[in-house]
Design brief:
Blueprint (H helix, E strand, L loop, with lengths): L1 H7 L19 H8 L7 H5 L4 H15 L13 H15 L14 H15 L23 H19 L2 H14 L3 H17 L3 H14 L3 H17 L3 H17 L3 H21 L7 H16 L2 H17 L3 H17 L3 H20 L5 H18 L2 H17 L3 H18 L2 H13 L3 H18 L2 H17 L3 H16 L8 H21 L3 H18 L2 H18 L2 H18 L2 H17 L3 H17 L3 H17 L4 H18 L2 H18 L4 H17 L2 H24 L6 H20 L3 H17 L3 H17 L3 H18 L2 H17 L3 H23 L22 H28 L44 E2 L6 E2 L11 H9 L6 H11 L3 H6 L1 H11 L3 H12 L39
Antiparallel strand pairs: 1-2
């Protein structure tokens, strides 16, 4: 009884009452008696007399499952681990309500599955890399073990493998088995950590949180406590509390360091990097450097230990951290170093994983226009083939997903579909539900909306046949969203109701109750979405309220808070601000009860905004101050900085207290500076500029603060902040233009020119960061600016690009606004039919969103276009037809504030590149020593110190190296993939000599060679970076037509025209930000200031 309670009481599944009550381990004879009690008066039979039919069936199923593996030789009975598998099968069958005796004949599918998963643990070989010095059971104590301890170690290793492969249900079985069999606190903590990860993978967040918190209280110190802290960090990350997760992981790391436990330190550093990377995906901040620092420390640790396999993993983590920071050169270099080490060690497994990361880096470059997606296809193909040769199904599935993304980015959707389908088959084979859901989403995106709905319905039927209610509901929920997108609100609502009825009509098992409640809550949220689309807001509010109750019962705090936020949104749409206020107050109560102070402060700020909208500025200030105080008490400096910024907004826009608003912005900047958060500091400077504008200060003051925001981020290397700062300067100039318009004045030419240039720069910077939403919004602003400047063609182009981007992230508001801008541009061009069509489409979208103002604007354009079309019909063909003369090209200013900002950015770029090169060289130069027998003087493989960003063509003559990326080449060595061109010509200036001859500038050859030798510039730099080209022209003192000849020699005929995908942005490959034409040459086009 004690043994069974130890296993099952925590999960609520302990229901076996017919087993011995003694504290000894159960024996095989006990299970046989459980299967068929011989004596009705026996104490076991009497104890189980109530549910005997179900228990008899459970015992039969357990015995049948266990008989699949014969007893151990000489023992006469199965091992403890095998016996536990049978007992688990019995529990699983008995846990199903209302099954009756018939389960013995095959209805106990879950029991058979769990028993097979458990019994396969010892018979399945650990498919680890034979060249890796790390063993799967290295984390378990290596002292001599008994049979039970060995069983536990095997179970723990299998659970760890299951978690890596995404088989969370099987991992849960194995980890729970190991947990009960271990006797030391450290090993128990490791099992608990794996159970937590498996619970998180199966959406049992509440159970995972309770388990981690309970063990954290019981194990406050030592290695066991540090291990449970890592589990707690995973729980925090799963609930979106990344700062708390990093704090827990840091505490664990410090404990392991104090105990001199290198294995623990490695696990803690991996957790820090993983949580920090997840935080960066949700939004940049202080954590942007945490992942990189942790990964670099992890690299140093594994090098010190001489574990080259773990070193490869650390290099890949560093690559992913650089990729998340949009530092593509470093990301490629470190992934390449991992490939190099794997090739030296002839480890195909490590090489395939690193090639997969290389493909991801190239795909990111392809999104910014810097690289061709075809290169990623080659890398991913090699990774797939390597995994297939190893028989690694999970790795093959992951690599196929990357390959599908590469095909899709290359415009070959049919090829992408051919990769996703096999990956889905593998995911089903492995039983990885998260991967199945992810791949089904990929398949949906590769089809049209109508075909996707049919596909999702078929998958729902498949899940229904398999008895998987959760997968069935997931597919149907996605179908509802697509129907809403297509405007089929009535069909979507009926389908959403059927999903809710699916959960209402199903009785969950005791162990799966929380997961059932989560599924029910998500179905209710989907029905709320459908009610909103059908304009039945009161019912949408009720559905969201019911979802909140269900999330609360399941222990999902984040879900409960999201449901309350949705309720508040529905109330605001209905115009009931006070009801929305109560919803946000309830949200604050949810976070307060959970002890989530950071989220409680955020909810308080939402309450303050509601008070401000209700014209209660004084109450809003009081609540905002309460949020600041809460952050101070919890020592959350980042949260306090955000609270001060919110306070600044309330003081400036509602209380109109500009002096206090400036003070709040100063507080926020001071805290962000102390944290080293350059983006936070830029936000504070932007807030200061906004307050100064509202206060009516001189133009120079807000402009200087916005410019300082750019400078701060440039110095810190915060690329997201650079884009934000450029947008801040553009916003200041746009506000100045609006002030002129409000005064009935035409925009000043100089101000309009600065606004155009900075908005164009900001749009390109957002594109560099792959921030589609921000880029779409900025292009929309650019369209309006061109409209004010009277350039209808440029306005139309910007609006069209904004619409294309809005379609990618499926946001109706942005798409409708872009359509309205397109209509405005057509009006400016006097293309009345096109204006009418675009306005009608925008009007339909505004009607669906219940946006009366947008609908009115669209109708105004429609009326005007109809009037003009009528006039054109009356004067269709006549001698008095007016022929419009083409607009006169405007002369653009060659200097301004934007030129000084560009120079500042160029200097920062050079400085940052030098620093990054030194840092990268330092890390890669400390590669592992290579055995002498692996290399000879005749066949030397470059070390990791030589691996750097080396695209084909860089540092080599153009005649010898093709300018396009080379495909993968298989070498004769196992696992050898040549992807770098490390050959360097003795004289790296030959290319510039030939370039000067082609441009008929023979007299400038010596000066050009001297400049190339001094700067280290390669032909690729000059061809792809406008700033570098401008610097060379300036150094050589070239005149106008000399510059044109040099450009044509470098790029070929037609190089004067922009060859990028965007006629407006003109982003050249590998250019961090677009740069204006040099002062030595006047712009040839009136719309290419940057």
């Amino acid at each position: 009884k004690v043994w069974l309670r130890r296993f099952w009481s925590r999960s609520g599944s302990w229901r076996i009452v017919g087993v011995p009550a003694s504290p000894r381990m159960p024996r095989w004879s006990d299970l046989q008696q459980l299967k068929a009690p011989q004596d009705e008066d026996d104490s076991r039979g009497a104890a189980a007399s109530g549910p005997r039919p179900v228990w008899a069936a459970a015992g039969a199923t357990a015995a049948n499952a266990t008989s699949a593996r014969p007893p151990a030789a000489g023992s006469g009975r199965p091992s403890t681990w095998e016996m536990f598998a049978a007992m688990h099968a019995a529990v699983a069958v008995a846990d199903e309500p209302d099954r009756g005796p018939s389960v013995a004949t095959g209805a106990g599918a879950s029991a058979s599955f769990l028993a097979r998963a458990a019994l396969s643990c010892r018979s399945t070989a650990m498919d680890q890399d034979v060249t890796s010095p790390s063993a799967r059971t290295a984390s378990v104590d290596a002292s001599p073990r008994s049979e039970e301890e060995q069983d536990a170690a095997d179970a723990l290793a299998q659970a760890e493998e299951d978690v890596k492969r995404g088989r969370y249900e099987e991992a849960l079985v194995h980890a729970r088995a190991a947990w009960g069999l271990f006797s030391t606190a450290m090993n128990e903590a490791q099992a608990v950590s794996l159970i937590v990860q498996a619970l998180l993978g199966t959406d049992q967040i509440g159970e995972a949180r309770r388990l981690a918190e309970g063990h954290l209280a019981a194990k406050e110190s030592g290695r066991a406590g540090a291990t449970v802290l890592l589990a707690m960090a995973e729980v925090h990350a799963a609930t979106g509390r990344y700062r708390e997760g990093l704090k827990a992981a840091d505490r664990s790391l410090q404990r392991f360091k104090s105990l001199d436990d290198e294995d623990g330190q490695a696990r803690a550093l991996e957790t820090v990097a993983r949580v920090a990377l997840a935080s960066m995906e949700s939004g940049p901040g202080v954590e942007s450097g945490r992942a990189l620092a942790a990964a670099e420390e992890l690299l140093a640790l594994h090098r010190l230990r001489g574990d080259w396999a773990k070193e490869c993993e650390a290099l890949r983590t560093i690559s992913r951290a650089h990729l998340a920071r949009h530092e593509y050169e470093d990301a490629f270099a470190f992934a390449g170093a991992a490939v190099e080490i794997a090739q030296q060690r002839e480890s195909v497994q490590c090489e395939a994983a690193a090639l997969q990361d290389l493909a991801s880096v190239v795909l990111a470059l392809a999104e910014t226009g810097r690289e061709d997606a075809d290169t990623a296809v080659h890398y991913a193909k090699d990774a797939v083939e390597m995994y297939r040769s190893l028989g690694d199904r999970h790795g093959e599935m992951q690599a196929r997903q990357v390959l599908a993304t590469a095909y899709q980015k290359d415009g070959m959707s049919s090829f992408a579909l051919e990769q996703v389908q096999p990956a889905l088959d593998i995911a089903r084979e492995l039983g990885s539900h998260p991967q199945i859901t992810k791949l089904l989403d990929r398949l949906v995106k590769l089809h049209s909306a109508e075909k996707a709905i049919v596909f999702l319905t078929q998958e729902a039927e498949r899940a229904k046949v398999a008895g998987d209610i959760h997968m069935q509901s997931e597919m149907l929920r996605r179908a509802v969203s697509l129907k809403v997108y297509l405007g089929k609100s009535d069909e979507a609502l009926e389908l959403a109701k059927s999903i809710v009825a699916l959960f209402q009509g199903t009785a969950p098992s005791r162990a799966g109750r929380d997961r059932h409640r989560l599924g029910h809550a998500r179905a209710l949220m989907t029905s709320a979405e459908a009610y909103e689309a059908a304009k039945r807001l009161a019912e949408a509010y009720q559905a969201a309220t019911d979802a909140h109750d269900m999330f609360h019962q399941a222990g999902d705090i984040r879900g409960a808070a999201a449901a309350l936020a949705a309720s508040a949104g529905f109330c605001e749409q209905m115009g009931d601000e006070r009801k929305a206020l109560r919803a946000f107050q309830d949200q604050r109560s949810v976070f307060k009860a959970a002890g989530w102070k950071e989220d409680e402060a955020s909810a308080l700020l939402s309450v303050a905004r509601c008070h401000a909208q209700l014209s209660s500025a004084k109450e809003a200030m009081r609540v905002a101050k309460e949020a600041v105080t809460l952050c101070q008490e919890s020592r959350d400096m980042a949260g306090e900085a955000s609270a001060w910024l919110a306070m600044c907004d309330l003081q400036a826009n509602f209380a109109f207290d500009y002096r206090d608003a400036l003070g709040s912005a100063a507080h926020a900047r001071r805290l962000s500076k102390a944290l080293g958060d350059a983006l936070g500091e830029a936000k504070a400077l932007k807030a200061t500029a906004d307050v100064l504008m509202a206060q009516g200060a001189a133009e120079e003051a807000p402009i200087s603060h916005a410019k300082e925001a750019v400078q701060v981020c440039l110095q810190a290397g915060e690329k997201k902040g650079e884009a934000f700062g450029l947008q801040a300067i553009a916003d200041v100039f746009q506000m100045l233009i609006r002030e002129d318009a409000d005064s009935g004045l035409a925009p000043r030419p100089a101000t309009l020119e600065e606004a155009l240039n900075f908005t164009l720069l900001a749009a390109a910077a957002h594109g560099e960061m792959r921030d589609t939403k921000s880029q779409a919004a900025t292009l929309l602003q650019l369209s309006h600016l061109y409209g004010q400047d009277g350039d209808g063609d440029a306005a139309l182009q910007a609006a069209k690009e904004s619409k294309d981007l809005a379609e990618k992230f499926d946001e109706m508001t942005a798409e409708a606004s872009a359509l309205l801008a397109i209509a405005d541009a057509h009006v400016l061009r006097e293309a009345w039919q096109e204006a009418k069509d675009a306005a009608e489409e925008a009007k339909d979208m505004f009607q669906d969103m219940l946006d009366a103002e947008g609908e009115s604007d669209a109708q105004e354009i429609i009326d005007r276009a109809q009037l003009q079309l009528k006039k054109q019909a009356e004067n269709k063909a006549g001698p008095n037809r007016v022929i419009k003369t083409p607009p006169v090209t405007k002369k653009r200013a060659e200097t301004g504030l934007w030129t000084s900002v560009i120079k500042m950015m160029e200097k920062a770029k050079i400085s940052k590149k030098e620093t990054a090169d030194k840092r990268r060289s330092r890390l890669l130069a400390q590669g592992p020593p290579v055995a002498a027998e692996q290399h000879t003087a005749a066949d030397e493989v470059p070390s990791s110190a030589d691996v750097a960003w080396a695209p084909p063509g860089r540092g080599t003559p153009q005649a010898e190296v093709d300018s396009t990326p080379r495909p993968m080449e298989r070498s004769s060595t196992p696992g050898g993939t040549q992807f770098f061109d490390l050959s360097h010509d003795e004289d790296e200036a030959d290319w510039v000599r030939q370039l000067m001859r082609d441009a008929s500038l023979q007299g400038r050859i010596d000066a050009a060679v001297e400049w190339v030798s001094r700067t280290g510039c390669a032909e690729w730099d000059l061809r792809e970076d406008v700033a570098v080209f401008a610097e060379l022209c300036s150094q050589l003192g070239l005149r106008k037509f000399e510059v044109k000849r040099l450009r044509k020699a470098l790029h070929g005929p037609g190089s004067d025209e922009d060859s990028s995908g965007s006629p407006l942005l003109g982003m050249a490959p590998f250019v961090e930000l677009p740069t204006p034409a040099p002062v030595v040459e006047k712009p040839q086009s009136d719309r290419e200031p940057c």
